[in-house]
Amino acid sequence: MSNQARREDQPGLWGVSSPSSMRGGGLQGRRPATAPAANPTRPAPVLPSQRPSKPMDYSELWTIDDVANYLGVPKQTIYSWRHTGYGPKGFRVGKHLRWRSAVVIAWTLGLEKDE
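Predicted structure:
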């Protein structure tokens, strides 16, 4: 059996019945007949920048993003402060860094008193 005969028996891409029907243009400019449907049971992921802002509870744990946003500094500054022992005292939960919001707020209030 020749290669041409074998190709015509196989279904083509995107619902095109065979490669012979695509002669003269190849795959250029072709799009799928239907776009893949979104999975309705799985919501789209929410990026940290897309999280709705909410008032923070004083008893909740903050991530590095939360601390950096509250203090108005880059995350790398928080990491540097941790390395040198400066800044609000954080702790690890497994491999994740967390800060108690009350500790961060108290630290900033302490900075205000020192000035």
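Summary: The mean pLDDT is 75.
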